[in-house]
Specification:
Number of domains: 4
Number of strands: 0
Distance between the termini: 162 Å
Number of helices: 9
Order of helices and strands: HHHHHHHHH
Radius of gyration: 54 Å
Shape: elongated
Length: about 250
């Protein structure tokens, strides 16, 4: 056998090997296709009863609403949905943002709620609620005891009352009030030790010799004088006002 024949035999064997490999690939591909076809056939067989039941159910549902919904209505709705696809997508994005915000705010809300509960518990322990309840009881008694006319009169004089309260809250007035309270308390304590018999005139006259007694009487007299002068001035102003009003020129 020549070298040329040997080369051709080798070449034919290589071609046969390549063809054998290609046939193996084709056979493998055919097996895979057959397997996929079998799987699809099995899937169709499994889905056939479900699809038939779904079609039956859909047909029954459509038949029950056919008098309310017409095909052209469904087509019109479908066209509107397709036209508003961007709006629907934007709405879904906003909804997702809202859900995320609620999830983030949930923790803050729970923390704030817990703080509020702790604050309410602290207020309850410190007696705030009892104080408010007592205050409401006072308001109820005021509403029950006073009529609308009394409230109107109070509203007319509220400015003067506030002026009086403002004057009473001045530091010097508070000092005087504190001194009067201290004196009243000391006098009350001394009164408990006084004898049952009232002091006689000579005993009272003897107390006049005490400088503090004379100083107190002088202060009391000065106070009475100041009050009397104020009342006299107010009465004179009232009389002058009435005289001016009743005079012919005032009436004109």
């Amino acid at each position: 056998m020549t070298d040329t024949s040997t080369d051709r035999i080798i070449e034919l064997e290589e071609k046969l090997d390549k063809m054998s490999g290609q046939l193996d690939l084709i056979a493998e591909e055919l097996r895979e296709q057959r397997l996929r076809r079998q799987q699809w056939d099995e899937l169709r067989t499994d889905l056939a009863p479900i699809a038939a039941e779904a079609m039956t159910l859909a047909s029954d549902e459509l038949e029950s609403i056919q008098e309310f919904v017409q095909p052209e209505d469904m087509l019109h709705l479908l066209r509107r949905i397709l036209r508003n696809t961007k709006n629907i997508e934007d709405g879904m994005a906003k909804y997702e943002s809202l859900v995320e915000f609620l999830d983030d705010a949930g923790a803050l809300t729970n923390e704030a709620f817990i703080k509020a509960l702790n604050a309410l518990e602290d207020y309850q322990q410190r007696g705030y609620f009892e104080f408010v309840g007592a205050g409401l009881g006072v308001v109820d008694r005021v509403v029950t005891a006073y009529s609308k006319e009394d409230v109107d009169a109070l509203g007319d004089n509220i400015v003067q009352m506030l002026d009086i309260v403002k004057n009473l809250t001045q530091p010097e007035m508070l000092v005087v009030a504190q001194r009067l309270l201290d004196a009243a308390q000391r006098q009350q304590a001394a009164a408990e030790l006084e004898p049952a018999e009232p002091p006689g005139l000579f005993a009272l006259a003897g107390q006049i010799r005490d400088p503090e007694v004379r100083r107190g009487i002088a202060r009391a007299l000065n106070t009475f004088k100041a009050v009397s002068s104020s009342e006299t001035a107010a009465a004179k102003a009232t009389i002058d006002s009435k005289t001016t009003t009743n005079s012919p020129e005032g009436g004109a």
